[in-house]
Structures are given as C-alpha cells and as structure tokens.
Structures
1.
Amino acid sequence: MIRLENISKQYDLGGTTVDALKDVSLEINRGDYAAIMGPSGSGKSTMMHILGILDSATGGKYFLEDYDITALPDKEQARIRNKHFGFIFQSFNLFPELSAIENVMLPMSYAGIPYKTRKDKAVDLLQEVGLGHRMTHLPTMLSGGEQQRVAIARSLSNDPDLILADEPTGNLPSDKGEEIMEILESLNKRGVTVVMVTHNPAQGRRAGYVIELRDGMLIPGSPNLEAQNV
Amino acid sequence: MFKEPVKIILRRFRDRTLESGLLIIAVALGIGAFAAGLSLIMNTMEFSNQIMSSPEYRELVISTRSEASEMENPVEEKLVQENAVLTAADLEAANLAPGVEWAYVQNNSRLHLITADTGNMRPPEDMSPPGGDNAGGGEPRADDRQGIQISEEELAEMEADSSIIIAEFDEISGYEVTSQFFNSWDITASSGSLISEADITGTENVIVLGSELAALLAGESMEADELLGKKLLSREGYQTIIGIMNPVSEGFDQEYFSPYKDETGGFSGFRRRFMDTQLRFAVEDPEDLDSTAVLLSDWFESQLGEDQVVISNPRAEAEQLVSRNTGISLLILFLSAAGFFIALVNVSNIMMSRVLRMKKNVGILMALGASKNSIRKLFLTEALVLAVSGGIAGALLAIPLSGYMETAAGIEAGSWLYITIGAVLAGGLTTLFGLIPSRQFMKIDPAQAMRSAS
C-alpha cells in the first residue's frame, strides 16, 4: 500500500542542517498494524508526518498504491489526506468551537458530503465509539478519553484506508489508553491499516510489527527490514 | 447552514467579543470617514459641474455704480455719475463683442397683489392715496404709493368677473426682462407665449408666469392653462397673463416675468429709481468671458465715461467658491483616507495575531483535508465578516456625517450612492488587508503549522 524509497528529511535550524530521517526505505501493506518506536528525537514524528503527507521529504520517493505521490500539487495532497488517511493525535486536536458531532463532520465537509449525510454518519461513528450521549457537547466538556474517542470517530469519517495515530494514548490514563488501543485493534481487524507512533513497548508488542528508528535511521533487525528490501 | 470550517471562524469571531468588537469599530470608523469623505468630494464635484453649467455663469452683468464708496473719482463728480442710466439701447454693445450670444435687460421686480381678504387692505384712516382727494364712492382701497384704488363694491364685482384673477397672497416677485432673457436661459413656454419685442414696445401690462406660480394662482379650481388671457389684479394695475413657462431648475418657477420698458415716467419710472438696471451679456463659450468683459468695458467707457458701470463676472466668483469647496473636500478626503489607512494597518496587525493563534488549527484543518485554497477561503470569510459588518456600521455613520458636511457646504444629492460606493470600496480594501496575514499559510506544510504552540 505504502512504499517509501530512500526517504530523507533535513531541517534547517538557524543555519545548521539536521537530518531527521536518513535514507529510510520501508513498505506498509494493506491491513498491517505497525508501531513506529524509538527514543525522543529519533524521527518518529517526522516519519509520521511524511507518511501522512503533512510534510514533504527532502529526498527519496513515496509511493501510495504504486503511484508516486512525492511531489503532488497541494490540492491533490489535501484530497489524499482527506479521503485515504485518518489522523489521531496525542493531544486530540479537536476544535473547541465545534461540538463533538461537528468535529466528526468536519473532514466530511471537505469531501463535499451533504449536511444530512455527514450528520448521519457522524452520529453512527460517535455511537460506535460509545459517545452517542455526548454528541452535542463541546470538547471542553469531555474527558480526555472521550475527546480521543471523538478524534477516532473523526479520523474514520471518510472511511480511510490508513489510520495514522501519533501517540494516541500519550495524554491518557492507562485505563482510558487501553480503551483506545482496543478500538484501534478492532479497526485493524476490520481491515483498516493502522500505523501508530508509541513510546510504550507493551503497545508496540500488540502491533503486528515494529518499525524502530534511531537517529533518523531504521534500526537493523527491525521486523520491517525484510519488507523494505524492494 | 454553514459548513463546519466556517462555523469555527464565525464562533471564534463571536467568542472573542472585545477583540472582534474593537476590530469592527476600527473598521466602521475608517470606512465611515472614508465613505463620507468620498461622498463629499463626489457631491462637491457634481454640484460644481451643475452650477458651472448654469446659464448664469456664462453671463457678464453690467450695472451702474450705485454707491459713492464704489467710485474711484472725487465726490464732487458723484451727481454726474449717478445720472448714468443704462437702457435697453445699451444692449447694442453686444454687436462689438463677437463672443456674445444673447444680451438682455433684467430688473428685479415685485407686484403687490390685491386680495379678497379685507385684512390685507389698509384701514381708511391710514390711507394717503396720491392726489389726496378721496371723497365719495365707498371705502377706497389703494396702494400706499400709487396705482389703482378699488372700493369694496368694485372688488366684489371683480370677484364675480371670471376674466379677473384675484390672488390669495399679496406679493409676488419677478423680473422685468427683454426677450433674449428666455433664449439665454433656454426657457420655453408650456402654454401661451413668452415675452416678445411687441410686448416690450406695446402698452399693455403683460406677464409670463413661472410654472409653480401659475399652479398657485390657478388654485385647485382650474387648470394653469386657463389663466391665459386673464387679468391678474395688482396695485400696479391689471397684468394680462400671456404665457406659462415650463419648469426651469434655476429658481424661476415661483416668479413672474414682465417686459422691460425704457420709459422713465409714470409707474415704471417710479420703480426704476429704486433699482439698478442690469444688462446681461451671455457668451456661448465661458472662455470668452474675460475678453468680452474687456470689450464691453471699453464700449461703456466710450459711451458713459470712466467708471460709470460695474462689470461683474459671476463665473469668476463661482469658480473661486468651487475651487475653495473642492480644496476643502479634497483635504477632508485626504484626512479620512489617512484615518482609514491607519485603521486598515491596525486591522491587518490584529488579523495577523488572530491568524498566528489559528496557525496550529490551520495545520489540523490541512491534515483533515483542507487545501491551501480552502484555508485562504476560510480567512476570506473572516475578513468578509469584518468588512461587511464594519462596512454597514461605517455607512450608517457616514450618512449623518456626510449629511452634516453637505449641509455645511451647501451641497446636496447623490449621497446614498456615493456612500455606498465608498463603503463597498473601503470594504474591499478591508478584505484585502484582512487577507494579507493569511498569505503565510500558502508557503508552509501542515506539519510546520501544527508545530505551532497555540
């Protein structure tokens, strides 16, 4: 589904060039459940941003379903993020001005879905994550776990092929984190590809495989290394 | 129903009441001042064009010097100079000035009407009719200076006579003119005829009525046309109505016009002593006014001697006034535009701080599928909300402001149009300035925006 070939990413920090990713190649197949792990500064978030086309690589190629999407125009990138990817962030990133249901409806409005359809879909998704009774609440009136469940419902609104979760349980107590993990696992079982950044080795073990990064490079022996030899 | 991204912008606007309120006030004041300033200058220019195109400002006015203080010569010559009298014969000066298109005499005039209301009459003991002898034949009604005397019985007979018009008001003003007056002002008759050469040389008292005066005299009981041929009763005698003018925009509609006659004796001569005869020379091209004034000055000097007449050029005076008004209006426009520009820069700054606070959210919106174009539209929405609300408030401010300035400058008409144009123009500029801060998102990636602290 996704193939990265020799991806590198450099940042220019006040005249100093920092290599966030160095020559990374990997492949993620449809239905995979991958965990990206590594210490702070290893390039996990950069990897996540490159995978989600939230940032552009300074070198290498990115193939999505064998299409080279490395240098697509902005409008096309936006369309892919909207239709094919769902994002879950550590700090939830809900819009405080919108109610839970409106937050879920938001990505659908960019897909041009009519109001009634997106509202019905948002109701279904919120019920699915157990928030049928909190739909009109503003995010500030919801607990952290509830906010993350709204974020998950939002990420699913356009039926994405890939869920990109950046430390989805990082801001939650363990019991609430467990609920989120269970939701992600059930999504994966339904065929949704899940790529999750995590610090937590236990959560890493629950993934199908781990992509381990250090200093912007894939660690040799990482389970994905066999797959990346393309 | 607004889409969710628009709801975010609108609710942010609503939730930041103080900041949004200050923004709207700043924009409203700026737009209001600019729209009022623009309205003022446009109205001033329109008004100037309007008055400068009036026939009055294509004319040179010749009158005799009426006050000793205006004279440059020694006082002992005063009597001689006051004897200088202008007559219709002096209009021949026009033959020497090729630029002159029309030439006519114009005197201010007034008719004292006799009304059916006896309260209008002077009581008998106050009367001092010319000749003094007033014995017999009922109570006389007479002008205090001259003219006809009418007894109550005679008045009753006149009221019964349908060929006599007895007005309900006691005075009307107008002009004694020669026939080219009507050519110069491009005045036509709606019914009957205007004053002709025959009327000037004839002996009958005839008058032509302005449209509104005709309607007033006709009252509700008859059509204005029916006044033709009837005699208007005045202390100066019967005035036969020979024509009614089409409406003119120059303030002549409530006045009457009678033939100017040069005779110096009798009733006309009496009045002539109390007013200056004005000779008016209208040129076709206003450019010829100065050269024509020189030619006319030479001619009158050769005829009457030095410093006997005053030649005034109303256009030169009007141009000074117009130029002063335009200058003041331009200054006001400049000040209001400067105020508006300062408001716009402040709006842009505040919008920049709002946009910076939105930066992380913009990154999230992009992650959820917003293209850079969608983001631009979102900020356009915010700028439009500001421009429209500020524009409406500004226009509401500008209307009384502009009205006051126009009253002070004596200019009217067209304000709504120009205020709307000004407000729309200023609203457009506000939108542009409001959009400038969002341009930064056209160059950054979503990840970069999301790294923002807010």
2.
Amino acid sequence: MGFFIEVLFGGFLAGVLYALVALGFVLIFKASGVFNFAQGAMVLFAALSLVRLMEWMPIPIALLVSVGIMIVFALVVERLVLRPLVNQEGIILFMATIGVSYFVDGFGQTIWGSEIYTLDLGLPKEPVIILESVFEGGVLVNKFDLVAAVIAGILVTVLAVFFQKTRIGRALRAVADDHQAAQSVGIPLRDIWVIVWSTSGIVALVAGIVWGSALGVQFSISLVALKALPVLILGGFTSVPGAIIGGLIIGAGEKLAEVFIGPSFGGGIENWFAYMLALLFLLVRPQGLFGERIIERV
Amino acid sequence: MRTKLLRAAALGAIGAAAMLAAGAGEALAQNEQFLPRLVYRTGPYAPNGVPFANGYADYLNMLNERDGGINGVRLVQEECETGYATDRGVECYDRLKGKGPTGAGVVDPLSTGITFALTEKAPGDKIPLITMGYGRSESQDGSVFGWNFPLLGTYWAAADIIMNYVAQKEGGYGKLKGKKVSLVYHDSPYGKEPIPLLEELAKRHGFAFSALPVTHPGVEQKATWLQIRQNRPDYVLLWGWGVMNSTAIKEAAAVNYPRNKMIGVWWSGAEPDVTPGGDGSKGYMAAALHAIGDQFGVHRDIYKLVYDKNRGAGKREEVGQVLYNRGLVNGFLASEAIRKAQSRFGNKPMTGEQVRWGLENLDITAARIKESGFEGLVYPLKISCQDHMGSARARIQQWDGSKWSFVSDWIEADRKLIDPMVVAAAKKYAEEKKITPRDCSKES
C-alpha cells in the first residue's frame, strides 16, 4: 500500500510539472482561440535566455531581462505572424505557430547554444521519507516536486484572478469568443494579443525554470510540451484549473499504469497510456473536464 | 579590326586561363577523399553529438594541416544534420554517398537506429559503415555483415565487460547468485541490444535480471526509479543517451539509489551526463572505450595546427572530453583504414570497396598508435574478414564530482561467450535476408 501511495503521489507531482507547461497553451487558446504549437519552444527559449544571461548578470536582473525578451518575442509574433493573419481560420493560425515553433527552436539554439546548461536557483532537491511509521520504508517525496507544486498553485491563482477579475482578463475572454465582435466594441485586438502572448511567455519562463532546474536547460525541455497535450485534452483547452486537474490525473494515471500494468506489456507504456486516457475522456466529454461546451446554431 | 583582334585575343586568354584554372581545380578535386559526416548538432541529443562531431572534424583537419591529408590525398568532409533521427540519417546518407571523385569512402552513422537502416543499403552501395562501439552486435560477423565494422566493441561486449567488473567487485561470478541486476534502457534498438547477453549471463550465473525501458527522449523516469526503489537491485546498468543519462542519475539521487552501484555503457559516461546532476552524480560509474584528457600527442598537434589557427570545430576547453576523444578515435580509425587501403591500391582517393579492404586488413599496432600520437589513448586493434570488431576491451571510470578517474584496468570481453551468440544471430539474419555468407578463408 505504501508503494501505491508513493507512486500515486509521485504521479500527482509529475502531473503538476506537466500542468505548468499546459497553462501556457490554455492562456493563448483561451484568449485567442489559437492552439499555440510553439509553447514548448517558448519554454526552451525562455529558459535558455535566463540561464545564459545568468552567466553575465545577477539572477534578479537576468530574470527581468528574460521577461523583457519574452515580451519582445510576443511583440514580434504579433507584428510578423498574427497581424497579417487576423480573422483567418484557427487552423491557419495553428499552422503559423508550427512555423514559429521550429524557428524559435533553431534560433534559440543558434544564439544561446545547444549544450546542457545547469540552472541552479537553490531549489531543494533532497528526497524526504514520510509516513515511515505507517508503511514499511515510508513514502518517498521529492522536495523539488513540492516546490514545483507550490509554484504552479501560485501561478494558477494569479492567472484565475487575472482572467476573472480584471478588465484586461474580460477583454481577453471577449476576444477569444469572437475577434470581430470584440473589435467592434473597441477592444484593441493587437494589444490583447501582445498581452496574452507576453503572459504566456512569462508562464513559459516559469515552466522553463522548473523543468530546467530538474533536467538542466537543454533542447529536451521543449519536448515536454508533448506531455502537456493529454493534459489539455483531459482538462479542457480553456480552463486554467482544468490544466491543473488534468495534469494531476494524467500524471498519476501514467505512473500507476507504468508501474502496475507496464510490466505485463514489457514496460515503457506511460507515454501512450497518457494519450489513451485522454482519448477515453474525449469520447465521454469532448470539451474536456472543464472546457467550455461550444454549441453552434445552424 | 585591330581592336576586334585584341578583344578576341584577350577573351581567348581569359577563357584559356579559366579552363586551366578549372582543370587545376578538377585535378585538385580528383585528389580528394570525400567523407560524409552524419552528425547531430541540434535536437535532444546535441549535447552528446556536438563534442563527438568536433573531435572527428578536428582530427581530419589536423591531418590535412600536418600531412596534407593521407599520403597527399586531402580529406574533404561534409556534415549532414541527422538530429539522431533514422529517417533524416538515411536521407543524409543518400544525399552524400555519391559525392567526391570516388563517392563516400566510409560512413559513420553515429546512431544504432540509422545503422540498422543502412545495414541493408550499404552492401548495394559498397560503402563500409564504421560503428565504433555501437550498432548491431551480431555485425561483428564479417562473413554475413560484410560492410559493418563495429570496431573496438559491441553492446554485447560492453554488457559482458560491465558484468565482469561487477563480478570482480563481488568476488567472482559465483557470488552473483541470488543478486539482482536491473537494466534501465533507452527504448530503442540501441537500448535493447544488451538484453540477450544479460539474459544469458543471468541464466548462467543465477542472478535475477530485469529490464526497465525509458521512452524517448528520457525526460520522465519517475515511474522507473520508483520501481528501482521498490525492488532495490544490487546493481543498475544504464543504457541511455543524451538527456536520459543525466535524468537517470538525478532520479537515482531522488530515490536515494547509491550512484556507486550504477554503471553505464560507454555512451552513458561523458561529461554532459554527469554535470547536470551536480554532487548527486558523485560515485556514478561507466565503461570507457578509451582514455580521457588532452595530454596525448595527437592533442598537441590539434592545438598547434587547428586551434592556434582558430580553425577548431568547437571550444578549445572542450578538447579532451570523453566524447571529443571518442570522435577523435573514430576519425583515427577511419583514416587508418584509408591509409591501409592506399598501401594496396595506390596513393589516391579510395572507393568504399577499397576502404572495406583496408578495414578488413587493419592492424593498428602499438608502434603505429605511438607514431600517431594515440599512445595511452587507445589499444592495438586487428580486424579480419571474419572478425569486424577486433579486441573488445574497456575500463570502468568513476565520476568524483569534477572529473572521471579509472577504477579498473582494461577488462576484455569474454569472446567464448559472445562469439557463439554472434554466429547464431548472424546466421539467423542471413537466413531472413537470404544472404549467402562469404567464405573468409578464400579472401585475401
């Protein structure tokens, strides 16, 4: 039983890390209806910028400059990609983000390098054993994962307040519903896009810090975006809390499956199991657990 | 009229000069040995791919600078980015195989997946594949795999060497009975390669063996290491690549698995594998195909002739790292094969078929190693038509937090164990692919 709880808990904490990346997707989709394929590349680019800047300046300054870089990135994307494609179908914008993704991947590695860079912000990494008196050997918990969970919790709270309680948040939601209608009531579409891509860039920076601290900053962290996809399918593309709940379910589901079912299949099932789990949810609830149900009248 | 004549004469002179220049260029190009270089400088495996590519490139450039190439034949290399993806690797091979006056002399696929794909293409193209320390283990059998050369060692040899070391530590193979050994492997042809040999060793010596796959690229291993924590194996063998290695070491630290009970294959024992883990990597061990460091003669030449002239492929401070030296050794073996082929076919660019002859007659003696500046870096190697691997030895190295140090002497793979497995697997492959094995006793 102790081992089951350990795997379950480990899965929850892994899910929180996936949710951090999923949040960036949700933000842009929620505010612009665009599935941003470049989110993983943005995580890598933000983390690479930070870790390389830290070689020349103190951490707080490097953090601020990295935020600045992500805002400039948002401005460039809005000016060169989104603005020419305004009012185009969502699929066109999605294709454009695929282009952005490959460009950012290559550009980031060209200017910052493709080595592994160690990112040490002093986050605790030692494991702790809890419930030793209850279960033999106790339950192992990694302090780093707990810190990541706290960071994700803070981020979700801030974003939820931002979307629900601020004027800009409401404007973002209006733009997501209908670009043209939002423009007709005076919402500046370009500014909104810059704001949402900047916010998403900052979320990417946070995700990059957490993943970069765990793995080292390197190309592979752009691939964690693939881990966010089943989370989004399950949690819904438009729900910030959905990203967290989806992350927890996917994280726990795939770890339990890998440990308890995997050996019967030769192991290595967690990647496809996550997608299968998401697919099952999709069949029952296409909009995801917390996604908005879209009803279109004919 | 006179002006017209002068203009015609001038044009004629320019034309003649251009033709002469073109002819000279062509003559120069005719005396070049083309070497396609399948590399990965981007993507998830770039941190490991870059130093290897740099070492290889620097060695060829140094030969050009120092000796004018090989016996006056300049070495021309062209890199093609594979991203460690099999499809892109095959595309690179197809694009580059016909370049140069004689086509590709030899190809280093630098990926077991790409090697699997090219193994069927190379015989038709008559281009040898050097897969130093990787590739198909049964390709050691030259009678079936006429174009594959897993020089210095295969994964079966690596697994056997590592288990020999484990047995040494435990006081002999007899002491392994009842012990538990787990393999954490990259879920790819590369990672699966050692499994048959480890299963055979487990059967012979009575230890419990379990294999735990990690899916590409290996950034998520929590479930794997929770199983390790639960099962508490006596040893964990690591068969990873790129980010999978550093993640495995970090996860081992996270579940308190002792790093000095973890032993990686030679592709899991470079600086990018241990530095991200910081102090958590201390004690981790891995097999080593060659020595580490920049204190060898060949490095002195590379510094003087390449880096001092700002022509280095990478950073000067990375010269001598594990994977840099791996690329260097690989370049050395490829160039020695060309040199050997020239000794029979003349000092000119060699075809793939001629380089294969060079490889099958390669005899790198201690004297030749010393002469080439590799003394202490590699050990002598002799290849034949039947044996495409040569002697397979490795040492075990351990990371102390800042550098690798050897903790064992050279350990030789047990050929009595490996060779029958190789023959059986090669025979099966030959039957499947309808290949008639060569009779090596009749080849010179």
3.
Amino acid sequence: MNFLSKKSYIAWYFVIPVVFIHLFVIGIPSILSLALCLTDWSGLGKINYVGFENFIELFDDRYFKKAIFHNILWTIIFLTVPVCIALMCAYLLTGIKRGQMFYRLAFFFPYMLASVVNCQIWKYLFHPIHGLGGFFESIGIEALASSPFTTKETSLYAAAFVDGWHFWGFLVVIYLTGMYQVDNHLYEAADIEGASKFQKFRYITLPMIRPIFIFSLMIIIIWSVPVFDYVYILTGGGPAYSSEVVANYLYTHAFVRFNVGYASAVGTLMFIYVIFIVGIFGLLRKLGWEI
Amino acid sequence: MMKTLVSFVSAIILSVSFSAFSKTKVTWSMESNADRDPIFLEKLQNAYNSAQDKYELEIQFEPNETRIESLRTSMLAGMGPDIVETPGPSYVKEYQEAGMLENLDSYAAEFGWKDKLIPWAYSSGVFDGSLYAIPKTHESMVMLYNKTLFEENGWKVPTTLEELEDVAGKIKAKGMDVYTYGSSGWQPTHEHLVGIYLNNYAGPQAVYEAITGEREWTDPVFVEALELLKKHMVDEGWWSGSLENYYAIGWDDFHAQFATRGAAMMTIGTWTFQATSLGIGQSGDEWGWAPLPSLSSNSGGPNFMIAIGTTMSVNAAAKNKDGAIDVLNWIMSNKDVVIDIASDFQFGEFVVPLLLDDSDIPSTISPQVTSYLNEYARITGEGNYGYCTWTFWPAEPGVHIWKDMEVVWAGDISVEDFMYDHQKMWDKARKKNETLPVPLRD
C-alpha cells in the first residue's frame, strides 16, 4: 500500500478525474466509432457487420473525394493567408507604443465572438435583398451582386475568408507573445549593423519565434481537418458540394441520411490522418528539429 | 363549529391534493415555435389536463434542429418521451424497425381510429401491416399569387405550362420575380420544387409507379420534368431572380418579397397560410391561391400533392403508455379541439387528418383557406393526388432528391445521371425494406 502514497504518484491522482471524463466522453465513443465503421448501422436498430464495404464505397464516392480536396485547399489557404497577415501585423504592432492595446483588441475581437454570430454578420452583408449586393450592382461590380456564399465558384473561398477573418487575430496574439520574448539586444546589435526592418524580421524575429510559428502551423493543419461550423452555417457544404468539407460530409451522413456506419468510416479516416500529422511532427522533434 | 370548518377545509385540501398528485405524467417532445407554443400549451396541454383527472400531459418544446438528435439519443438509451413526435414517415420507419415504437393496432381497433382519419393518412402510419404513427398534421403544395397585382395587370392565373410561361414573361417585364422562394435556413426546400415538377409534369400515376417499383426513375418522363425545372430555375431565374438568390433567401425574406410585390407568385406548402395572411395583409394587397399548373399532358389535370408534416407515435419504452394512448385518442375524438387549434394557424399547422365536413370549417378562417380546404377535399377525393417527397421517399433517396439536385442545377451532372443515381438508391432502399407506405391508387 505504501507505493500508492509515493510522492511521484500524487500528480497522477489529480489527473485521474480528467482522464476519467476523457475516457467516457472521447475514449469510449471513439472506440465505438471505430467499430461502427465496419457496420451498416443507421443510428437506430440492428447493427450488421459489413466488413470494409463502407471504405470501398467511400473510395469510390466522388463527393467524399471532393470534400477531401476542399479540406486540403482549406489547409493551404489557412497556412498562407492568415499566417502571413498575422505575422506582418504582429511584427508591425511590436513597433507601436501608443494604442497597441486597441489594435490587439480589435484584431482579436472576432475570435471572441461565437461562430454563428460571425457567420450571420457576413451572410447579412452579402444578402441579396438587405445586403450590399444591390450597392455593388449599382456601381457595376456584378461579381458581388450575388452572395459569394451561394455562388458555386466562390462559396468555399467565401467561407474560408470568414473563418480566416475570425481566426487571424488569434495568430496575431500568439505571434506577438513570441516576439516580445525575443531578446532586445539582438535588435540593438542589428541596428548598429545597419539592418533594415525586413532584415531584422527575417534574421532575428522569425528564427527566434520558430517554435511558436511551427506550433501555429501544426494546429492549423490539425484544426483544418474537422473544420465544420463556418461551412455548416454559411453554406451547408453547398451549393452543389462546392464547399463540402469532410466533417460536414460526415455530419450529413450520420444525422441526415441515417448512415452512421458510413459516417464512422469517414471519421476513422479523419482520425488516422490526424494521428499521421501528429506523428510526423513528433518524429521531426525526435530528429532534433526545433519545433 | 370551528372543528367542523377545519374538517371541511382539510377535506377539500386533501381531495384537491389527491387529485393533483394522483395524476400520472404523460410527456410529449414537440417541435418548438415561438408563435405556436402558447397555443399548444393552452389549447392542447391545458385543455387535455382539465378534461380528465387521470393523466397530466406535459409538452416539452425544443427546436427541431436539436430535438431530432436528442430524441434519437434518448430513444436509443431506452428513455425518451411517452409520445414520440417525428418530422415524417421516414423517421417513423427508422424507429419502428428498431422496435422503439408501440404497435397501435389494438388501440386503433378499440377506439375506431381508422374510421376517424382520412384513409391515405391513416395508411401512411402503417408499417409492415401494423399502425405505428398518427399524422399530427397533413399538408400540400400550392401556388400563391398576388391577386390585386394580377387584377391590376389583367393577368390570368396560369393552369398550364403555356399560360405559366406567358404570365412569367409579363411578370419579368414588370421588373418583378416570377416566384419568390428560397432555401436559406432549410436546404431541403429544393424538394418542394422537385416534387411539384415530378407530379405536375410526369403526373401522379407515373410517380406512384416509380415509388412502387413498377417504373424506373430513369424514365424519360421524369428526366424531362427535371430538365424543365432546371430550365425555369437556372436559365430563367424564376425563383427570386436567380439560382444564387434562391439559395440566399429564407422564410422571412420570401414572405416580405411576396408582400411588397418583389415577386408575383410563390410556390409553397399550405403551412404558410398563416404567415401569408399576416404578411400580405399588412400591405393592403389581397392574395389568392391556385393548384399548381399542369406542366404537360401527362399530369392528368390539377392535383394536390399529399404529405404528412409531423407524426405522433407512442414510445415502446414509455413510462406511461396508457396515458400516451389516452392523449392520442382524446385528440382524435375531439374534432372541435383540432379545428380550434388548426384555425389559429389558418389550417397550416395541427391539421390532424380527421374526416371533416364543410360545416366543420369555422367562419374565422380566411376565405382563401376555406376555398382551398374545399377544393383539396374535392380533388383528392376524386383520386387526383400526387406524392410529396418527404412523405413517400425513403431516407437516403429522400436526401438525394434535394441535396444532389444542386449538382444538377450547377451543371456538374446531367439530369439523366442524377436519375440513374436516384434509381440506384431506390433499389438499395427496396432491397433493405426501407420503402414507406403509399396509398393505393383507384
């Protein structure tokens, strides 16, 4: 019994309640979901084992492939646009002494709002009756006369834009935190050497915030897999699957089409992908990468 | 004297308490709606509770967006409300297959429910030969038009495709949209239009044959029907001016458009009657309704598509099964209660398909709705009825018909390919015994 009161176990005791909750809320449902991907369960009633039939069907499903492509596109967009803007703004903010708090708050504000609020604002702005559509039409910008959320060619980018608009303020805050930790002597030395602002950013700031920067890329890659709320509220994956993403596809199959087995197969693939990404980052860390 | 008074008061308190506490609770999970909830509470819950001393009905309101999922979860856990309300027969089928609903055959026989309900509506709740659901409301699709506007311009209410295309041209020339309608907030709105074109171009007989498996959905008559819909939707922009606008506007918007002459007509379900009366009533214009125009000679004249909006069943794991049965029987035995509640919604909600006479329609109902009810009874009574997708399509083809219609409208696949996929889904549903009850045609 003595080993139970060992000092090294005390931390474990405190963690047990969290582990317990995670086990029930995430662990068991995940395991069940993994099991359900081999069945044709409708969400109610009998569960029939169908082997890998769901996966075979999935690999032949043109809309699932389209959803994967959109997720990849979404990841690329988020790895570039908000990251670049946030890096630039965070760096510029470090040079602002007065009123910096206002900018930080203004940039971060959309992140504090619920996704449904953000979406409704933008949906309303581009509403064909009450929104800016009529105005754009009157000044000859026909492309914005219709809502970009309901136009096949633009729906995915429009949803990504709104999500990016809410997200980039978060990146600004974490980059800014990293930038404030950079030793000021380095900048002073660079000033003596006559370095330009861009050179200081390229050769001092960026290398010094690398762990935070890589971390931000990792969370973007991981968070881009289950992206759901903005797409669901703004476009519902439409029109014509033009903004369909994997999580929305999973939701439709599980809760609208009564295809829980099929949806579980989608979920399993998402799970494998996330494990793969986390594994790659772990491997790189083991290989000595500073991430 | 004092002693007698105390005893008397105590006896009254005891008897009241006994009656209050002796009532057993019956629960009902109902779709919530800010306008409708107070009426259901007053005229259904409280009225039932006052009418008898045995059971205490408790209606729990929740928006359908979350209610459908929470209901499914609670039913899976062997819990759930005593009265199970679903959005339609495809949901009933899922619960029935899972053995979660009570077989109502013996109660239907005991209380004579079959004789009280419209035959097709009764049969919509019969699965594998037994009754499992009672319709809470039934509905149809109609064409509404701005009567004042039509009269001012001398336009004729269209009854055929030629007349429809003619009046559509005149409406557009006036700078208005032909129809106002949109799917924002409810993507399955597309199926309303698909159903209209299938039933009014191919005709109800062809649709019936396809539902029962006597005809394939790849039949040219269905392909032509949906080609025509695509032409009107995409090329002509009949609904709200363009396909993009149709996707972008929702319930409040299209009612506002109709009331403010943004559009001259609206294709919609009868659940709109109250909203339309209130909306256009404020503008000073008068509205009218008409059956949907026949879009080809196949359609066989005017018909009304029949549909079940919501169903009521009894949970097989109900804590108070007898109470739940008593509530359902009370509804079906009290025509006045049903008519009173339905009247508050201009017969757009809680239209329990009881057999009614002309004399049952109260004078408080708007003349348009009264004339609709009479026409609906006459035309469907003659066997001229079509089939709404949300009542007669199994779950997966039922989603495909609206979700993938967008792909057709986007031009990503042809109508032929769409119908080929649709037929495959029906074949799969038939193989898995997922098809829904359909009333026999005369």
